[in-house]
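Open question from group meeting: does this chain pack into something compact, or does most of it stay loose? Before anyone orders reagents, we agreed to write out a predicted structure and look at it together. Recording both the input and the output here so the notebook holds the full record.
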Amino acid sequence: FVFFFFFKQKTAYEIYQCDWSSDVCSSDLYPNPFYPNQGQGFVTIDNVPANAKLRIYTLSGIKVWSGTATSTGLAIWDGTNKYHELVASGVYLCVIDSSVGKKIIKLAVER
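Structure tokens returned:
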């Protein structure tokens, strides 16, 4: 079965599409919101299935970053786009895609 959950966790809304046989549901990212100009140097994406594909998009669908989780289920994003410039303040979507499931998490960036 596939279930969708919508709930508020502190200041971030997360959208889950989870298959209960996978561990992608436990994936998370922090800090959220992300304040790059206040000393927060990166976003940690944690509890991701090993070697999962990760992508971060603007709400208009423009891809700003892509990466792959490590074998220990960790990925780091430094808040920059493909030109190595800090992204603008706004809401972004982090897409975690693996062979065991998919999850989308909203991420707020405030510069």
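Observations to bring back to the group:
The chain has a mean pLDDT of 84.
Residues 53 and 68 are 5 Å apart (CA to CA).
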